[in-house]
Write a structure and sequence with these properties.
Elements (H helix, E strand, L loop, with lengths): L3 E3 L2 E3 L15 E5 L3 E7 L2 E6 L1 E5 L5 E2 L9 E9 L6 E6 L2 E3 L21 E2 L4 E4 L1 H4 L5 E2 L29 E4 H5 L3 E9 L1 H5 L7 E8 L6 E3 L11 H6 L4 E6 L5 E10 L5 E9 L6 E7 L4 E5 L15 E5 L2 E5 L14 E9 L3 E10 L11 E10 L20 H12 L16 H13 L3
Parallel strand pairs: 1-27
Antiparallel strand pairs: 2-18, 3-6, 4-5, 5-14, 6-12, 7-11, 8-9, 8-10, 8-15, 10-13, 15-16, 16-17, 18-19, 19-20, 20-25, 21-24, 21-26, 22-25, 23-24, 26-27
Length: 446
């Protein structure tokens, strides 16, 4: 299905603080005090992260137990590779459901005690220990949560269920930790009245952690980066990284990180990390201009009975674009959903320039699966490189149509390469492409 472009609203600020509403309840992750290790099962380790929330708004935040009017809390782990050229999400947890709010002052705002455990007062903070955030019976599925509106089902899926040491907790593959790098944990709160006030885009924070090696444990390092999604850790390590906040009109927010790496051998690798912070519409494709000699995709696993597919996105070339796309599996498609980050990497023989990438939306504005819309974003992309005079001029010497172009077309058509995909429908190699090549070849170069 061909997707149509819609306007993208992007904030290029490097501070990472998303635009928030000006009034109403506004919950943030004020502190990430500690991390707890639970053990290893089949090469997977489990953790939970302590969180302290703060209400920086001007009205109390609802915290009603036994309803869907309280915050839910996600926990994540990330790694920036040793060369600084990539950030990866290593794992995610199910969601802790809030049950009572206290009256701390962790953010130094001065707590206005609301006189109720069912409200987080203006300026107040509430601590949840790593033990509480790892309590399996009170961890619920992410699949029933809309991070843009703050809505979630009640009772929530998974309520009261417990399992082995890793069940529903923040899960990380041992092999990926062993690869080394710089590690971080993050947390994000989703709360209905915070979202209704338009303050849902500043609810994520992160903090560096230090590994103690083979025993599986980590400890906290440095300080909590408040109101910054963990993708901003990449920029801390590598200043060449570009980070943008991408707002889907009338809906949620993505964060896009981009980096062009000179491999020193005449090729460049373009690294993209796309983090969905609050978009319920989600994403099911990511397209980059150009042609690639190699591509790479990475996602993050759902677990503990969550129904979403883990099928990798596949990369195809056509219409002068390299498009990564999720396999269409309806409601369980491996879409890029809120609180997760996927990686897209291409290697080309062309230097970087500024151009547009396209984020294909998974849901339409009404919430139905199967959107035809894309969000276009300006960032670093591969340049076009050597160009022929028309669609038939696909091989050197360019500017001359000859046997090399015919052979190039036949080879590309047989292998379903970009050079032979010259006519709509793009992504399909058929008679229209043959006719298009013949027409362009017959027309000749100017």
């Amino acid at each position: 299905m061909k997707k149509s472009a819609i306007l993208c609203i992007a904030a290029g600020s490097l501070c990472g603080t998303a635009n928030a509403g000006t009034i109403g309840a506004d919950v943030i992750v004020g502190e990430l005090p500690s991390i707890q290790y639970y053990g290893e099962v089949s090469g997977i380790r489990a953790y939970s992260v302590a969180t302290t929330s703060c209400n920086i708004g001007d009205v109390p935040l609802e915290w009603f137990d036994g309803t869907n009017r309280h915050p839910v809390i996600g926990q994540t782990m990330y790694r920036v590779t040793t060369d600084g050229n990539r950030i990866e999400q290593l794992g995610q947890s199910w969601l802790k459901h809030g049950f009572a709010a206290l009256t701390g002052n962790a953010c130094g705002l001065g707590c206005n005690n609301p006189g109720s455990f069912s409200l987080l007062g203006v300026g107040c903070s509430d601590p949840y220990s790593s033990g509480l955030n790892g309590q399996q019976s009170n961890l619920g599925t992410k699949t029933q949560v809309n991070a843009y509106t703050g809505f979630f089902n009640w009772p929530f899926g998974g309520r009261g269920q417990s399992g082995n040491a890793i069940f529903k907790r923040l899960q990380v593959q041992v092999s990926e930790v062993n690869e080394g790098g710089t590690f971080y944990v993050g947390s994000q709160y989703v709360s209905p009245d915070d979202a209704e006030a338009g303050n849902q885009h500043n609810n994520a924070s992160f903090r560096p952690i230090v590994s103690f090696g083979s025993n599986g444990s980590f400890s906290m390092s440095s300080f909590t980066r408040r109101e910054q999604a963990p993708i901003y850790a990449w920029k801390e390590i590598n200043n060449d990284v570009q980070i943008q906040e991408i707002f889907v009109p009338g809906e949620g927010m993505f964060n896009l990180g981009s980096l062009a790496v000179d491999n020193g051998d005449g090729t460049w690798t373009y690294e993209y990390a796309l983090h969905n912070q609050t978009s319920h519409r989600s994403a099911d494709s990511f397209a980059i201009p150009g042609s690639a000699s190699s591509t790479d995709f990475r996602d993050v696993a759902y677990h503990s009975g969550d129904v979403y597919s883990g099928t990798d996105w596949t990369a195809t070339e056509g219409g002068s674009m390299i498009t990564f796309a999720a396999a269409d599996q309806g409601e369980v498609t491996n879409a890029l959903r809120w609180g997760t980050m996927y990686n897209f990497s291409v290697t080309t023989d062309t230097e970087p320039t500024t151009g547009e990438v396209e984020i294909g939306l998974y849901r339409d504005a009404a919430g139905n699966v199967g959107s035809s819309e894309v969000v276009s974003v300006s960032t670093v992309v591969p340049s076009a490189g050597a160009q022929g005079c028309n669609a038939a001029d696909n091989a050197a010497p360019f500017g001359v149509l000859d046997l090399a172009d015919v052979q190039g077309f036949i080879s590309a058509f047989t292998s379903q390469g970009d050079a032979a995909d010259v006519a709509e429908p793009f992504g399909t190699w058929d008679l229209a492409d043959v006719q298009g090549f013949i027409s362009a070849f017959t027309a000749g170069c100017p």
